[in-house]
Design brief:
Elements lengths: L10 E5 L4 H12 L3 E6 L20 E4 L5 H8 L4 E4 L6 H6 L1 H22 L4 E7 L22 H20 L2 E7 L1 E3 L12 H10 L4 E4 L5 E2 L1 E3 H13 L7 E3 L5 E2 H12 L4 E4 L3 H4 L11 H7 L7 H15 L5
Parallel strand pairs: 1-2, 1-4, 2-3, 4-5, 5-6, 6-11, 7-10, 8-13
Antiparallel strand pairs: 9-12
Length: 329
Amino acid sequence: MNFEGIYKSRKALITGGLGLIGSNLARKLLDLGAEVTIYDNADPESGANPFNLDGIRDRLRVIEADIRDESQLRIAVKGQHYLFNLAGEMSHIGSMKDPFKDLTVNAFGQLTLLETCRLHNPEVSIVFAGTRQVYGRPTYLPVDEKHLLTPLDNNGVSKRAGEMYHIVYHRVHGMTTCVLRMTNTYGERMRIRDDRLTFLGWWVRRLLEGKPIPVYGGGSQVRDLNHVGDVVDAFLRCAQHPKARGKIYNLGGEPICLLDLAKLMIDVHGSGECEIVPFPENLKRINIGDYYGNYNLVRSEIGWEPRISHRQGIKRMLDYYLKYLEHYL
């Protein structure tokens, strides 16, 4: 979609803006002529990385604060036209180890943000970063928005609370909100230090360090994934599209089994190997099995669909880390 003129001279706030999606979104918004503010607490356990703003830091404002800090939020939301709400806990494992942190950030933090917007900028257009984790283990595929919600970990529960606060504030207070339930988002500027947030990031590090890619179980599990460029496009579409108001949309992509995905990464890189390893017990209990999403609703209403193939996206990602790996270890 051509966003030329839509975001020019408009003010956009990105919570969680030091992470994968937020930093790529910031770059796109700056290219479109927007005035960008990033709000992030720079939690070392999150995807936040100051290097993600390399080359653009002098073109935007950065507020380092927590989403639960109402006084800082009040400053940040004032005068904003768009709010891309990417702040939150995303680690499934982390949510089981520290459930109260997960709860306070993803529920109390989101409610604090929405109340601050209601009181100080109720006209702002908000797009919230939801997750397919709210569905739990699918009973049918592809999963559409009508699927039963049975999350398997604390993160899925708290993210569900966060998304419903956004919908309630639309229905009750008339605020412009939208939820995107994302699947595996990957690409340049994601955390690859460990597997805390994404198995794909960990695979990238292992591959580039010449170590085998660990594939749990037999590798037959099916997933879909979206390159961050396609996800940024979805956020930009939803923030300004009238049909997106008060809606919950699935994102999604072409299904691929994990063993084939590992082999594709090795092929694109030109070297490497993978190894089948047993599922760790702490992951086995919260594993959702096969998953891929039905994104017909978002395609029919706002015209979004993934356009970056697995091979194209993986090449972009690996090329980036080959150049900047030292900043992500």
